[in-house]
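Researcher: I've been going back and forth with a colleague about how Histidinol-phosphatase might be arranged in three dimensions. Neither of us has a model we trust, so I'd like an independent prediction. The organism is Hyphomicrobium denitrificans 1NES1, in case that matters for your notes. Sequence below.
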Amino acid sequence: MSGSLPAADFQAIVRVAHELADISGPVVLKHFRKALPVENKAGGGAFDPVTKADRGAEKAIVQALAAKMPNDGVFGEEFGTKGGDSPYQWVIDPIDGTRSFIIGSPLWGTLIGVLRDGKPFFGLMDQPFTGERFWSGDRASYHSVGGGRPARLKTRACANLADAVLASTHPDLFESADQAAVLDRLKASARLTRYGGDCYNYCLLAAGFIDIVLEPGLKPYDIVALIPIIERAGGRVTTWTGGAASSGGDIIACGDTRLHEAVLTLINKA
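Model: Here is an independent structure prediction for Histidinol-phosphatase. You can compare it with whatever you and your colleague have in mind.
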């Protein structure tokens, strides 16, 4: 919600975020399902891919923000942090799900989040290939190219882990023994577990199709934009210990707050 911020200012942030998505979408799409070089940002045998689509989209967003919101800070995955004089910082992941992007799968998205005094305030996820957009105004909303007027997002009721659909990007990301044990405990208790999806999973949770998203080792740009979308749809997002999720880390999102408490209990079971 806009809280104490004047409505006109909040609407300006929402408007600019949509404009940024409109700007970045074509930059990304001109490379999607095309042959392009893939760099590896990781060392030590790990794989953290980045492409000219990632860098081009973030550059376009940052340049547009410099003109539209020059006093705001920016934190992007590819080009780091730019300070600002206002209480607002834009947190950008130009392609969340680059692994999906480079194999031609549409399960990726552009994340545009806004922190106000360090707390998640607004979020938008844009999937320009499918023509879908999820965002958090005063309520969580969704729009698709063929879907007419924006629809309200609402998580579904699911109080029991035995009835829940659990999603996560990939089991190999649970690198430590403790992280793997948490995944195993939840997977053994949930009705259904599916892998793949990155940011798309969180939006499907906000839309009422998934009940739990479990991820280890996220960065702020992986999650900041998604927190307001889920919370304004009725869900909850925290770290595995129940703390604030905006700094990243091991993250749990649930559509039903009752389920969230049950999952936290199971995660932290000795």
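Researcher: What would you highlight for our discussion?
Model: I'd start with this: The chain has a mean pLDDT of 94. After that, consider the following. Residues 100 and 151 are 26 Å apart (CA to CA).
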